[in-house]
Amino acid sequence: MQLVLFWIFSLLMLLSAMGVVFFRNPVSSAMSLVLSFIALAAVFVTLDAFFIAVVQVLVYAGAVMVLFLFIIMLLDLREEKRRRVRLSAWLGGGLVVGGFISALLKVVLSLPALFVEKPALSHPLANDIEQVGYNLFRNFNLPFQVIGVLLLVATVGVVLLSKKELK
Amino acid sequence: MSTQIAPWIILFTPLAAAALILLLGRFSKSLSAALALAAAFTGCALSWWLFKQPDAAQQLSFNWLSFGPDFTVSISCTIDKLSKVMLLVVTSISALVFTYSLGYMRDEEGYSRFFGGLSLFLFSMLGIVLASNFVMMFMFWELVGVSSYILIGHYYSKDSAADAGKQAFIVNRIGDFGFMLGILLFWFATGTVVFQEIVDQVPNLTIAPIFLTVACVLVFMGTVGKSAQMPLHVWLPNSMEGPTPVSSLLHAATMVAAGVYMLARIFPILEVVPDAREIIAWVGGITCFAAALMATQQSDIKRILAYSTISQLGYMVLGIAVAPTSDVAMFHLFTHACFKCLLFLSAGSVMIAMHHEVEMWHMGGLRKKLPFTMLCFFLGMLALSGCPFTSGYYSKDLIIEWAVVKIPFLGWMVAGAAGLTAFYIFREFFVIFFGKARSDHAEHAKEQPAVMIVPMLVLGVFAISSGWPSIQKNFFTLEYPEHVPHSLHTFLYAMFFGGVGLAALLYFKAAKDPISIPLFANRLYIDDVYFWFVNKIQGGGAAVLSWADRWIVDMLVVQVPSKLTWAGGFALRFLQFGNIQAYAFMFGAGVVGLLYILLSK
Amino acid sequence: MISPIVLEVCVVCLGIFLLMAESFSVKSNKVVLAHGAIFGLLSVFVMSFFIEANPAQMQSSGFYVVDGLSLFFKRFALLSTIITLILAVDYLPIVQRLVPSAKPGAGTGEFFVLPVFTCAGLMWMASAADFIVIFCALELVTISLYVQVAYMRRSLASLEAGTKFLILGALSTGFFVYGITWIFGMTGQTGLAEIQRNLTINTEANQMAILFGLGMVLVALGFKIAAAPFQFWVPDVYQGAPTPITAYLAVASKAAGFLILIRVLEPFFTVVAFQPKLILVLALLSGLTLIYGNLAAIPQTNFKRLLGYSSIAHAGYLLAGLAAIGDAFAGRAVVFYLCGYFLMTFLAFLVLIPVTKATGGDDIAHFNGLGRRSPTLALAMLIAAASLAGVPFTVGFFGKFFIFESIINQHFYGLALIGIVTVASGFYYYFKVIRAMYWMPPAEDAAPVTISRLSKSAMLICAILIVVLGCYPQLLMRILP
Amino acid sequence: MPTLAHYLIVSGLLFALGMAGVLLRRNLLIIFMGLELMLNAANLSLVAFSRFNLGPDGMPNYNAQVFVFFIITVAAAEVAVGLAIIVALYRAKQTTHVEDLNTLKF
Amino acid sequence: MSSLSPLLFLILVPIFSALLILIGANPRSTSILGSAVNLLFLLALVVFYRPMEVGYQFVSSFPVVPHLGISFTLGADGLSLVMLFLSTVVTLAAVCVAKSPDNNPRWYYASLLLISSGVIGAFASVDVFFFYMFHELALIPTFLLIGIWGSGDRQAAAWKATVYLATGSFILLLGIIGLYLIQPVETRSFDLREMIVNAQSGLIPDAPGVYLLLLLGFGILVSLFPFHTWAPQAYACAPAPASMLHAGVLKKFGLYGLIRIVAPILPDSVQRFVPLLLVLLIGNILYVGYVTIAQRKLDWMLGYSSVMHMGYIFLGFAALNQLSMTGASLMLLSHGLTIAVLFALCGEIRERTGTLDFSELGGIARICPKLGLSFGFAAMASVGLPGFVGFAGELLVFFGAFGSGEPKIGIIDGKEVFGLNLYQIATTCAVWGIVISAIYMLRAYRRIFMGPLPERWSRLPDLSGFSRAAIILVIAVMLVLGFFPQILVNLATPALLVP
Q1: Less Cβ around it within 10 Å: N or C end of chain A?
Q2: Is C428 exposed, middle or buried (0-12, 13-18, 19+ CB in 10 A)?
Q3: Cα separation, B175 vs B227, whole angstroms
């Protein structure tokens, strides 16, 4: 059952990711990106990471995608015109991507430990929100604050960069 | 005054004079002349005094360069029979020529410079004479070269004089190249450069005859250059561009004889190297004959004398090579110094009278205008041509005798050269002093003042008498060959009279040269070959190398690497063509490459 | 004793205070903000000397380390931010022109405030001992730099630079994260100290996976320090960015990259199996970087861009030093080099800005005749160029010397040979500036060059330090961690 | 049951797809989407690692999930800033094509 | 040990003079005064020097990089004093001869003084590292001097010389690092004295790679064939004082380094590459000699001639014995003085006529007798005439080199052998060099000073003022030392450590 779910969502995620790459219309790409994010959230669920799955949907599928779509609409982007097909770019890109995948496969396939079935959790209803929150606010206090500053800077930056005229 | 100090005074007074002239010469002309003369006469007087003294056992010396036993060059004076005689010759002739110069140079520019140069020359020449070791001799050898350069180039504004000086120096340097190598070889074999110490080691050296031969021949190269032997003789005729006293003193009497003197110095070594002596003999003999041939067709009064000098030097070199003692050659050196100097001074006197005209076909009939000069020339000529009972007769014939005994072919050849000598010198004599005056100058020529005539007369006396056995035995210990063919003396007389007669016949009243032999007139084309070689081969080769330096060496070592680097930079720049995706691609390629390196075993 | 984290807190507070001051102030002249920032940072700098380096004691449960190195880099970051702010004050007229603003001076205050936050990020990076903290601090720095690079929105160059930096920076972030993931996956840890502990008990198969992750982390850090082939953003971004930010990127960001590189590599170097491979990779990267940076700089005519290539070139030397880390002194050599690099690069930028203001451009040709127009500036530039090229009696020479001593000691003869070509090229392109200043006649319409007192004193300090450290490097070596 | 290798390979493929997006697409926005995919791939790996390598208490390693949380946050901030830059660029240049960004070169 | 070395004063005087000039002092008088003070101070040091004692005197040491054993150690022995003397004399001559240029005279004089300070520092350093550093001090001033105040194709020349020399220096630096690293770890030092102690106790292995780096580095700096092409061009284009300092003093650095550092520390490696070195130095003497003959302009000719003369000094080094190395040291001095005077005079001629082309000049001795006389002296010194110090040097080099190596002459194994070993062949070629140098020097003299005087040069001023004084000074030094070379030998020889 888990395997089936895994395959369904994984394939959905990968296919929609391919959509992102291969659709020529930016809006279509953005929509498949949403799909991909949601599928990924589902995959997270198969990994018992409910909190992360929720955050994934909220932040990515919710906020980030809205931002993307907004911008696409704002900029009034059309379908990419058929410019000259750059065979060399596709070939080169393909080679790089292929090379990366083969390196990854080499690593994964050489590790028998990775093919062990998923062990059961000692506490099947583990409260991951509690665990994550606990870690975040206690152990990971420092990065958390750094992230806070980061967000502040990002906010200021976005305002600076996108306001038509600064006052 | 001790015999240890005297040579030092003789040696360094001229240097002091030269230095003072350099510093003060521009203030007063006469001061310069006075300084030079003072130095020469001091030297002359002291030399005569020294000649009378017995040899001192120990001479003063100071180490000029010292590295302990390995290598020490000292400046020290050798006082022996050889050097004493040579001192006499050099200082006496210098004193006379210096005096003569007072008159000769009176109206010339560069008066102080001239006397400065003469003093420097005297210093250098005396250094050669007194040298006790090869390096010291080499040093002064070089210095006479430079003073010769200065004096030949006295009229440096004239292209020919400037070129002649340069040529003399460079040709001498070629000889010095061999000389230096010879010195190095001797030092390498014996560990010393001192003549006496090398001589002491001669028995050890004879076990390697080829080595010794090579070393001697190399050292002889120095003589070839300095004493203008074939094939390095070309500079001497050209050096006649210098003022006549210079030609007389340096290029006839003393400096050119330094080569012979040097051979005499190392005579004990040469004695045991028959192969080297053979080579030396041939060089001397050929030079003697060929130069005499060339002299027969020259028309420049000084050049004839110059070729004559070369020819006579050939006799001396031959003398060193064939005679059992060096005194045979030194004897000729001694007499030659007197009569050749005299001849040059006479020629100078003619030139002054002729306003520096040297072309003898523009002269003629000077016997009435210049009686004293003619007389002096005549005396010198007799001695040169080997007229019986003059000095040349004694000294030259002795060498010819030895040559005939040792190497008959050469001997007879140089005996023939004696005839040529009589011919060319009488030719010159007749053309200058007889016949009609062939130019305005010749018609209005005037005799010279006493300051010039007196030294000439003094030399005239010597020219005739210095060979007389009663006189020469004070200076030399001569050995005479046995078994000389009787025909030789007859032949020599025949040669002398034949030469004189032929000259009289052809030239007594000739207005132009009745015979023309271009081969001799053009000095056997040797000068032309050299000219061609220097200009085309050396000059061309140098130009090619210069081109190669710029376009090949520089290219390979500098330009190509730098251009390659530049091109590399230029090419790399094109990776940076502004496109983010290209950058991302190269980034990705870098990632993949890096991963592969890390993951490979 | 002050708790070390107070330093960052102070800097962040300073930033927030300045932001508020900016938004509430009515004055159009925002220079006072810069002065405030400089003063504030200087105070923090002074404060940093009251903190004791204590490597053993880990703050905040192992995320935050206060050893000599981190303190040193905190100061490094503070000082570079201060000089960047000085540069920014000088550069203000140009920023004002190129920022779309409704009224004069609007939008310039943030130009002084953002570096303060970046500085906080850099300081956190200096102390980071855990991949998560490294990541967060690094992103704080990077994202704030995105904004700063693209700051001059009316300048297409600035925007283009910002975009390139953004895309490639994000790409490298992606690799960084993915690499960390793998390291975490194999060791179960994100803390460097724990990773080191776990590494030793790993199987061979695991090691390959760790190398896979580490490779990607290296890539991301290579991007930060501008190592070839991850350096392509550098010339473009350096040329387009506002000049003070270029300087900041060139010095602070690169130094932080190196610091992280040192920190990250440290645990992995302890594993015998990794060492040769890592050294090989570092040496290869170094060789490529050296060749690319130096050779491609040769034909440059734009000075800012030239400094971009130069920063790549120097990264090459630094990497060579890291590759020779087996040498006892290589670490110090690298840090020394960074300090020298700090001085000479900032000095070059300090001269560049007034020249740009006076001549309206930043090509090498704009330096023509500077020797006569402004001898002091020219002298400063001469010192900077000489030091960058590695002329003796400048700190740059000693930097190169220490590095090469280490690499020869570690038998990297290939790198030394590459060094011959690169040093020669270096002389060529740095001396082009000297040539322009002294050989060339000044342009006729050139405006007089003016320098503010602040930057003049900064220049003076840099120049003197370059020469003094060039004569007596021990002065700095002694206080190096 | 899917094993860790499944997840890792899927995540790797996702990462590669993101990379392909960056390398092949010419629209800045889509390139940016590709970058987001790459970050997501990392997240997936992290979560997978955290789920499979259980801690001593038999629970997932929640540190990884915290890290994912951070990554998501950072990604959001990055998207915001990035999009702002792209908007500014578009305003100035009327393009979001990478090929039009070529004034800075060589 | 810790007291301040008086040599520091020598280094600092030019630097302070340069600073004063940059601040605003009169450039010409300040630099002449500074250089004169330096020369006098050096002479005082020579007086206080105790020639009987072995080793360095006036030593002071100050650790600079303790972990690498680098310390700023100053000290002088006889050989360094000779070189310091050369440096100070040539500096004085150079600043005297210098003519204030129209543009930026301050930098002009300051650059000259900086070069001077660099060479003084190099020769006064006992520490190999500082020896190197000080030499490099000249790099930028040279670049400026040629580039700003040069003549002809000055830009190309300045670039070439600077980048090429910088490259050479860097190679040299690698070599020096190598030299440091081949010492055993515990006793590693850059201090020459300690290096030599290490070498003498057999702790330094044969290191051909290091030697080749050093040879290449020093060789480029000294213009060893075929790395010489920068030199003639740079000297031809540089202003006269710069050529004087560079060709006269700075270039001696490399040979000094070879004799001083390489010979005692890596004798085996030197031996190993002797054939190579001999071939190259014969290239210097014969090949470059003939190239010199082909030159048509005085400045280029002098440039090439200075390259050619390096060959003799290399020969002295290659032979590695006391005679030859002493000869090489003497030649360092003599060539430095000679070429300095020649370049000074070359500058004077250029200043007067604006051309150095032989075909355009002639007969100048008539109108400028002092110029002609000085040039004559210098030319004669250059061709190695006895009476000048160069002769002694050449002589020693020839003798030393000829006596080096395995003999192949005489009776060997009962058979008569007559063959020359490599050294002797090289020496033979080198001796031919005396003919070559006579050819080009006399030709130059002939073309410029002799022959008829063209109308256009009939109003040239003669040498005068400081230039004349400086030239007379240098010539006087050459003559005095030429008459008494033993002074130099006594100073230099104990400093030469012959393996």
Answers
A1: N
A2: buried
A3: 10
Does C13 share its domain with C120?
Answer: yes
CA separation for the pair B306, B233 (Å, rounded): 10
ipTM value for the complex: 0.91
For chain B, give the mean pLDDT.
86
In chain A, whose CA is at the least distance from the CA of B582? A89
Collapsed DSSP state (helix, strand, coil) of residue D102: coil
Out of C405, C434, C472, closest to residue E143 by CB: C434
Contacts of residue E90, defined as CB under 8 A and 6 or more positions apart, other chains included, come to E244, E245, E248, E249, E336, E337, E340, E474
> Which of C115-119, C326-330, E89-93 is the least confident region?
C326-330
User: What band does C56 get if pLDDT is binned at 50, 70 and 90?
Assistant: low
CATH class for domain D4-100? mainly alpha
Q: Which domain holds residue C342?
A: 274-481
Could you tell me the pLDDT band of residue E366, with boundaries at 50, 70 and 90? Answer: confident
Chain C interface, best mutation among A47, A135, A142, by max C CB count within 10 A: A142
Instruction: Considering only the beta carbons, identify the residue of C391, C434, C438 that sits closest to E136.
Output: C391
In a domain, C212, yes or no: no
Regarding whether C120 and C78 lie in a shared domain, the answer is yes
Amino acid at position E61, single letter: S
**Chain C residues with CB inside 8 Å of D61's CB?**
188
- Higher pLDDT among residues B480 and C316, named by residue: C316
Q: Do C164 and C288 share a structural domain? A: no
Provide DSSP, C131-143.
Answer: HHHHHHHHHHHHH
Residue E55, amino acid: G
Beta carbons within 10 angstroms of residue C26's beta carbon = 4
Distance in Å, alpha carbon of C132 to nearest chain B alpha carbon: 22
Give pLDDT, residue D7: 92
Q: How many domains does chain C have?
A: 2
Same domain as C237, residue C335 = no
Cα separations in angstroms, B273 against B185, C363, E310: 15, 79, 38
Confidence of residue E499 (pLDDT cuts 50, 70, 90): low
Q: Which residues of C touch E (CB under 8 A)?
A: 329, 371-372, 382, 386, 389-393, 397-398, 401-402, 404-405, 408-409, 416, 419-420, 423-424, 427-428, 431, 434-435, 438-439, 471-474, 477
- Residue C171 contacts residue B586 (beta carbons within 8 Å): no
Query: Are C244 and C366 part of one and the same domain?
Result: no
Residue C28 pLDDT: 67
Residue A93 to chain B, least CA–CA distance (Å): 6
Domain ranges of chain D: 4-100
C-beta neighbour count of C245 within 10 angstroms: 32
Please state the pTM of the whole predicted model: 0.92
Give the Cα separation of E244 and E223 in Å (integer): 16
Per-residue b/e over C329-350, b at no fewer than 16 CB within 10 Å?
Answer: bbbbbbbbbbbbbbbbbbbbbb
Using an 8 Å CB-CB cutoff, list chain E residues near C401.
173, 177
